[in-house]
Amino acid sequence: MNRSLRDPVLLPAVLLVWAAVLLFVLYPLARLLFLTFWNGGPSLDAVAGLVRDWTNRAALVNSLVLAALVGVAGTALGFMFALLTVRANLPSWLRRAIDAVVLLPLISPPFTAAIALIFALGPRGLISYHVFGLTKVNIYGLSGTLLSETLTYFPVAYLTLKAVVANIDPNLEDSAFSLGARRWRVFRTVTLPLATPGVANAFLLVSAASLADFATPLILAGTKFPVLPTQAFLQITGLYDMRGGAALCFLLLVPALAIFIGQRRWIERRGGSFVTVTGKVGAATRVKSLSPPAIVVLGVVCGLVVLLVLICYLLILAASLVRGLGADNTLSFAHYAHVFSGGLKAVRDTLIIATLCMPLGGLFAVVLGFLVARTQFPGRRALEFAAMMNYALPGTIVGIAYLLAFNDPPLALTGTAFILVVCYVFRYSLAGTRATTAVLAQVDPSIEEASASLGARRDVTFRRIVLPLVRPALLAGMTVLFIRAMTAISATIFLVSLNWSLVTVRILEGITNLELGQASAFSMLVIALVYLAVVIASLAMRRLNAGSLGQAGALLGG
Amino acid sequence: MDALVKVLVAVSVIFTMTAAPASAADTVNVYTAWPESLSQPIFKAYTAKTGVAINFIRLSTGELVARATAEKNNPRADVIWGAPGDGFAAAKEAGIIEPYKSPTWGQIPAELKDRDGYYTAVSKNTLVFMSNAKLLKEKNLKPPTSWNDLLDPAYKGQIQTADARTSGTALTRMLSIYYAFGKDEEKAFDYQKKLHKNVQVYTKSGGGCTVPAGLGQTTVCIAHMPDAMEAKKKGYDMVVTFPKEGVAAVIEGIALVKGAKNRDAATKFIDWTFSKDMQDLLDKNDVYMLPTLPGASIDASVQALMKEAKLLPVDLEWVGKNRKRLVERWVSETIKE
Question: pTM of this prediction?
Fold first, then answer.
């Protein structure tokens, strides 16, 4: 696939993507770097005091440990759910029900998930105290943070892995069976290796999300388990030390870089062995690679997770429907009345912004993923890395960097919706990009070469061949973007303005200001809207997708 | 790819058209750390009286200062309203606020304002112990009335209060302890280390322990007065008490943003906040803070409560100079276990 830059379509595409990344990722970060490490000359004085602080040293280690644990647990859980829903021949209503429940933590604002978990498993929690009668539970610290982040981020792994597992051609497994291999051996030597790029992806996405998450530790980690994003947040907002906070955040880039490079190496060493979508696929056969006991084990584990998530969110629903949970448990719609009066502007603004993010971010993700996976040009790796930087950094710092970069003319974007949209697009497109590269890793390049040899231009090939093939990835990317735009808070708390407000900001306000009922009602509305969007997206995609790549089209459970 | 370019161009055009700057002669843009429930009724009252619209965003104090600092060269806010004194001390140091003295500035007691007029207290706030009545009964405990009561092993894992690095409430707690122990910093930190053994978790927002205490996730919550009164009003069965050694009285202030685009409207609004008209609203709207203008009305229930409280005056200048050191010491000594 050696294409030179003389290609009339490739060059503008590369330039356009580079320009966007330069302006909306590298320029703001450069401004922040300058602020942090320049004090009349290059200077490390912002860092000096930080290293002496024991909490910051502990935070670095804790962050890495937590990210690794959440990555492993989240990926494992996501893979189990993917196997169960794709491979266990479950009735479709059950698959959909599972999808609907496990998406809950992902599509609700992070604070909500953590708070719900305290309600369920904390001191005097519904499960811990009222069911099991435990009085000395401790949810604050590593255990609670790990549990909450795993529940929040494993759906990312699940979504990615579902597409990957669905794309594995059962004929390959059939061949192994017909050669006399037993189920476990087929799983180990055929299914698992074919899923490896997806698993690596999932691990990267989940770990990176955990590394950057500040909301969950803010509520659950306490002072005994400090992590870097929270420390950075406290440094900025508690000690009024923006330079120190920024320095702590830049420290986070190191592990993010390590994960990224390691994962790239690993995928590439295994090269083209994942190609399962070629022009020659025969009729799909029934999947046989899961034994009944395996299905039972998967079912029990996944069932318990589903139950826990359900209980957590029923508690939030309850909080939104009573006057004051635990104080006055009479049924009341007052909180919803507030949402649809005083809160309506925030709802409308959020919806406009989320809707604008989807096509822009989805297209950006697919084009970037395609450029990275299928073309050669100088600085390709650098582009890929630069594009994921906003995702790896804690939102607080991205928000501050944007504020620094885009407050003054000629780039005075603060106060507009545009700054919120670009913030989301360049922060949350990674899922779509990763999904695109993962799907493309499974697609034989000879399909595109066939198109080219038939005389199609590069852009025609992209539109007619690549886009339809990566539709599931595009859909996943757009859905994740919409979800994030509806639920993210850390970066945007600095970017909301007098003109453009966001629901998540209202939720955070509710949680910190005793308005638990209002926060819950807003959360329920967000969840309902996101569900609606997911359903519409998958219906639209099913229509568009009719006949082409049917299996992968089931990405979001129909 | 052409389609992509077209889409991008179209979208950027739409955005440039919808992006309207928020400045007009009859508008004041406010950054506030007060919850909407407290600030909005007051802003609405001003709009009803004068026709001037108040646009506001609610941010935590730290976020507010960080944001206003980043916006320094092109300020988006005109007024910072309802943030604790230490936030204003930081804002003054960052050079984002400018001195402004209202006509009634002279009547505000000296300990409630910056000497040069950079910021002035709109209201006075204080610390309380709020305890879950049911849990106290279950554990056979009397509501705590002394800082030392909280060291009882019966409270192990039963106290929540704010992290010192989150401004406001936690600082009020640290100052209360410092003044209650006769300004002896060693004694104060020794006490906090002991208290730490009983703390279940330090919340990141000042009032973050209120609902957990209401729901029985913890027995005692140390927070500001408005949090406690709100919780009681919501129906949580809470007992509100004060330590007999005393609690610090801290300020919630207002300041004019340097280079404010709507300076005239902003100063008029600030003048109004120090009129009896607005100061009475603190009582009428159940803000549960004390007004700073002498002669403004105070709610009877707050007055009754305040009779039990021993309010210790705070030296604003000392706090401004020492806050960072105190917090850093808290991190390196108190919670290191």
Answer: 0.82
